[in-house]
Here is the input.
Amino acid sequence: MTDLVNLRQLMSLTSGRSEVVVGMVDGPVAADHPDLAQTNIQELPGKTGAACAQISSAACVHGTFVAGILSAKRGSAAPAICPDCTLLVNPVFSEAATGSAAQPSSTPEELAAAILNCIEAGARIVNLSLAVTRSSSKGERALKLALDHAARLGVVIVAAAGNQGTVGGTVITSHPWVIAVAACDANGKPLNGSNLGSSIGLRVCAPPAAASPAWGLAADR
Here is the structure.
């Protein structure tokens, strides 16, 4: 799948540099995972601690998976796009009890605060492998202000389009500064479950592991 988005050649040229700081707003990360050993992972104060308390929780599994894609050791099962970059982990999803069917969730205000935290800590890229499902006008305003702030500072925001199978954008994917990534198959064709819209799918398409969160939600409770 790395060939589909032309990553293999780039990854052969560089493994990144520590001064390239990537913010990850997601679940907590099992930083002691062997594939993540010796990577430059830093914790930012968030809704929960950045380290997993329950390895099998949905929030930990997803957060660790996304961290692996970004910075796992080369040669591991994950693509390991930028293992030598600095990864700032700012969790917004709490760990539910093991076996719980509930999807981890957060509020738009908490997500906006996490984006601002990453920017203040020096992130030049912020990854959002999550989707907004419901939002109040107050929540949307908070997210828009955070994204506007990123745009003014030139901080790149990359966000999953989401996998609810809907047509249209959200406050995140419709923002002109956000790079919205749709999910596609090995031939580059958008998947039926991927969200699409005028601001989604026309710019970037990627395999679903990177483009569509399995559960990630940012919704008013």
In short: The chain has one domain: 7-218.
